[in-house]
From TrEMBL:
Region Disordered, annotated ranges: 208-241
Residue ranges with Low complexity bias: 216-227
Name of the protein described by the UniProt record: Uncharacterized protein
Organism of origin: Gimesia panareensis
Length: 364
């Protein structure tokens, strides 16, 4: 790969990775500029870094895969990384994969769905797997580029990466698998000693440990995430929980399947209208304004708290017709998202039980 010049690391905040066999792989070599470091950062120590990362679009959320380390450690894992991505499939909204022979898997922690480690590496080389709400692909790619001191790319170059055929191991390429396209980066540069530069995503949360990103000083310390209790409706089967998923259920009837999840995120980065409009976008509905929100939602009592509930049914032209039943509960410094995702007919059948489930939730 080419040699790269470092630049000032700029962590970008954003709110925020199913596929079948690989059909084809496209790649594109992104042009770079080499801006000078400012005097305030001239003395900052930066270390050579290699990053392999990918974004997999899923149903209602994206899956982020990221490995970062010394170039001589990461480079030998490139072929394994690509073969791993080819093996990833989504089942019931959750990724499944085949591990390379020298990789191991550990359970997720905090916001991580899983941690994959390369055996016999010192220091340990690992890859994080993290689900997050859908976010702009270009912003994520440029955030990763900034973390290793590379200039940002453009929307045109991102599009070109999916439309041209070239050799693997370019800075930006895509893996086409079924109806999904994974955006992949293979970057080499330098990373400064900045904890945010190692975060796999932004939006007020750090990678791995799931800690809030530095923000304005507050006189009130953040509250710990509260455990929850609830009553599970009859017929709901336990789903795959862990990481930021505090609960998950698989719902099925008449040959249709859906999923219910309970996720907590930081309150300050989870504005009500933005999240409802994000859900509306996921089922192909237009966004609404603040003034339109009361007419398009209702309030549910959740103990001594209140949830904002929405029923979102997508257009009939989409098959299967998509639907989301969603409730957002704010408690202390957290926002709790309770969400059913599935076909519209199943959503209609499960709406009463979904509301009962939301209202049964208690925090301790």
């Amino acid at each position: 790969m080419k040699q790269f010049s470092p630049l000032l690391l700029v962590p970008l905040l954003l709110l925020t990775v199913g596929c079948g066999k690989q059909d084809e792989i496209h790649s594109y070599d992104v042009p770079k500029e080499a801006p000078e470091l400012g005097p305030a950062h001239a003395a900052a120590e930066a270390t050579p870094t290699r990053m392999l990362a990918a974004i997999l679009p899923g149903d209602g959320q994206n899956w982020f895969f990221k490995m970062t380390g010394a170039p001589d450690q990461v480079a030998p894992q490139f072929a394994n990384f690509v073969e791993f991505l080819k093996s990833v499939t989504l089942k019931a909204g959750q990724p499944e994969w085949k591990l390379p022979a020298d990789w191991t898997q550990e359970p997720g922690r905090s916001m991580r769905f899983a941690t994959l480690k390369v055996k016999d590496t010192d220091p340990p080389l690992e890859m994080s797997v993290i689900p997050l709400p859908p976010s702009d692909t270009l912003e994520n790619v440029n955030r990763w580029r900034g973390q290793v001191g590379l200039a940002p790319t453009t929307e045109k170059e991102l599009t070109a990466a999916a439309d041209t055929s070239a050799a693997l191991d370019h800075e930006l390429f895509t893996i086409k698998a079924g109806d999904k396209t994974m955006t992949v980066v293979s970057l080499e540069g330098k990373m400064g000693d900045n904890p945010m530069s190692r975060a796999p995503f932004a939006s007020g949360m750090m990678g791995g440990g799931g800690m809030p990103a530095p923000g304005p000083a507050s006189s009130t310390p953040p509250a710990a995430a509260s455990p929850i209790k609830y009553e599970t409706p009859e017929g709901w089967a336990p789903g795959r929980s862990g990481g930021m998923r505090k609960a998950a259920f698989n719902v099925s009837a008449d040959g249709e399947t859906g999923e219910v999840t309970v996720i907590d995120l930081t309150r300050e980065n989870s504005p009500l209208l933005d999240n409802i409009n994000r859900w509306r976008g996921q089922v192909k509905l237009d966004p609404i304004s603040e003034a339109e929100l009361p007419a398009n939602s209702e309030k549910l009592k959740v103990g001594d708290l209140e949830a904002t509930y929405v029923k979102l049914i997508g257009p009939k032209s989409e098959q299967p017709q998509p639907a989301i039943l969603g409730a957002i509960i704010y408690r202390e410094n957290l926002a709790w998202f309770v969400k059913f995702t599935g076909p519209a007919k199943l959503a209609e059948k499960e709406e009463t039980r979904f509301k009962q489930f939301v209202q049964s939730i208690r925090f301790e």
